[in-house]
Amino acid sequence: MITSASLYTFEIDDHDKALEEIQAQLSEKLVLKKYTAGIIHCTVDYLESGVLTYICEALEFPVIGATTTSQAVNDKLGKLMLTIMVMTSDDVQFVPARTNGLTHGQFAAIEQSCPSDIIPDLPLRLILAFPPLKDEYSGDTFVTAFESVYGNVPVFGALSIEEEIFTYTRNFTIYNGEYLENEVTYLLLYGDINPRFFITNVPQRSNLFKVGTITKAEGNIIHEIDGMKTVDFFEHIGYSLSGVGFVPLVLTLQDSPSCEPSQFVRGLVEFDENGSALCRGKVYENAILTIGSNSVDDIIAASKNTTELLNKEKDVQTALIYSCVVRRTVLINNPEIELETVYNTIRHDIPFMMAYAGGELCPNHVSENSAVNRFHNFSLIACVF
What we know:
It is a single chain. Helix 1 packs across helix 3 (51-58), helix 4 (106-113) runs parallel beside helix 5 and helix 7 runs parallel beside helix 9. This protein has helices at 15-29, 44-49, 51-58, 106-113, 139-150, 230-236, 296-311, 325-330, 337-345, and strands spanning 2-9, 35-42, 63-67, 71-73, 77-78, 82-89, 93-98, 124-130, 155-158, 173-175, 178-180, 185-190, 196-200, 212-218, 221-225, 228-229, 247-253, 262-271, 277-279, 288-291, 319-324, 352-357, 360-366, 371-376, 380-384. It starts with a strand and ends with a strand. It contains 9 helices and 25 strands. Strand 4 (71-73) and strand 5 (77-78) form a beta hairpin.
């Protein structure tokens, strides 16, 4: 069994005060057991001031995570925060890992990072992963690489981000106080735990626009829908692309006959000179496609609904929640409203942490023996255990 507590500080400059606040909350909320680890998120300010490293070096357990923007924990929500979800157990073991040489290839780096010398004689139940958001790395490839090394174990996590969306130079992953620009950090959880997952996409607008089938695709490019060039398909259904910078496409895909179809979002970001659509993630031939809503009301309603479903779960000691930073930009007139909605809706007897992500990793389906892991766009995801 895992017990957890969420900790926070707003102190960016005073190292000792920040550490004192974290340690005081930890002492008040949690008695550490045999095995302990932490998930940490903060803005880049804490890296630059040295507070991140100072706190991590003082803690007596491994801490991994990534930079983010706004956050929420049980006691507070806000923008310039450092937060830690501390997890402790007598029977669940936590094994931290990081890559060393991601620039040489995602598969090789994750394979070489496997801490084979310290893997417990227990089943691996969950991987909490934090890859960097970089233009040269594919979120889908991170998922595939983890599965190639560890099998079809659930992979859940967030790509690093900073305040300026799609700025790739100042977001970092975190490993025991080190902040890394081009490496993946992750935590392996071994033992008797039961992770459950929630995904909030966006409502489909099939009542307004025709549903189509992707008939030709390659990598992250949709070449044809219903046999038409993608740009012609959008014109055919009457969807104006004038002035559109991001279109949430809801894809429905039958992963296997034994499970329900998966539904996930791909962000259409631009068209090439051939009329093909470039998306922020892998797309699939034969996937059913429709256009998702990006209205404020729909985003907030969907997030609230998912949080209410999470509240109904039993035996929850930890809740990790990540939302795509693009959702926050859609809420530009009130950018913290989704954070506030989750904060005000979630049961506060559940230790929780919510942060924004540059991309989301979460299984669409989990069975007894395997998970259908996927990289998501424009989604809110949650993992409880």
